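== Item description ==
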Amino acid sequence: MGVSVVLHEMRPQVETFAHRTGNMAEMVCSNSFRSDDHEQNAVGLLHWEMREAGGLLMRAAHAHRLPAGGALAVDRDRFSEMVTETLHAHPNVRVSHEEISEIPDDGQWIFATGPLTSDALGQAIARETGTDALAFFDAIAPIVYAESIDMDTAWLQSRYDKGETEDERRAYVNCPMTRDQYEAFIDALLAADKTEFHEGETAGYFDGCLPIEVMAERGRETLRHGPMKPIGLTNAHKPEEKAYAVVQLRRDNALGTLFNIVGFQTKMKYGAQAEVFRMIPGLENARFARLGGIHRNTFLNSPTLLDRQMRLRGKPNVRFAGQITGVEGYVESASMGLAAGRMAAAELLGRSLPEIPQDTAHGALIHHITGGAEAKTFQPMNVNFGLFRPVDGLKGGRRGRRDRYKAYTDRAKSAWSDWLASQEVPA
């Protein structure tokens, strides 16, 4: 939009425990942007809107995508390298590697510090907002070297053979379990040593990113109906045998040398992780490129603090974006950055920026975090069709779901396209 900006990134001068590099957009929890289906899935619709708006992150994701069935997974190193190189080469962007630890009184600012907001900045935000920072914990899934997976036991298949190419239909490594193996695994999981919380921390987990041991504590069958569900899969080695549970691994890099264990975020101690995960058939000799971990996620009570322009009500020269606003997920976080950037640029240029329509995926999220959610019970939220206004005349329930979702996405695409076209600057 022609506005010169300074991008402050504290890494690598100030590190976090979860990041390995100083690159922008380094993905640490997963390498997936989830479903890319823009007709039947809300996050896929968000992908579509970001692409239509010329979003850098979607462009980089598609340049370095990996086979993942119907999902959009990326080679995380190449992805972050492209984002970093693009930003450094942009004539209107200057990158400054320093930590910002106070909320400035003047100038236009966007804070998109994410789940690992530094302690100093977190304290400054708390002072400015007059509230205590809220927190939950993100747990990181382990990564396995592909060559250490026993493919005489495991097989390649996407659930329900989903995908348009052979690579997509064979995007996941599947490790089957019998009932006895599953029960033994649950016993070991529950008995394993776990990471202790630091003083002052509370275990307020976001349900979409629960550690597997927390899921297991909620019931012995919980994992079998969650990340270990066996449906839609046929054992290539023993097609006549139905697995009681299945552990899936998804490719984590373009070379196919690394696979992450899908949905296996954990707060087990490292030694316990290796021991418990090697109980999984096919992973008896697994070598781990990275074991799981856990970290705090700080976020605002946005319904009380942010206006519809994502500005801090008490200091409107400051906007917030990304996961700190109370959205959850890489895509949702990036989409809030795209929206906040356009809003800030329009204000600086003195241009009129129409309000993002609530019926778009972006608009549904913004409405939720800036007033649609109940402030007293506000928790991080993924984009989902439950945030969308109903379409009149459509059947409710599971049977009408396909038509209903298509109506949501058709309506959103029309509204988003009109919003982009109505602006005084090109999309």
Observations:
- Residues 5-135+298-422 form a domain with the FAD/NAD(P)-binding domain fold (CATH 3.50.50.60).
- The chain has a mean pLDDT of 90.
- The two ends are 9 Å apart (CA to CA).
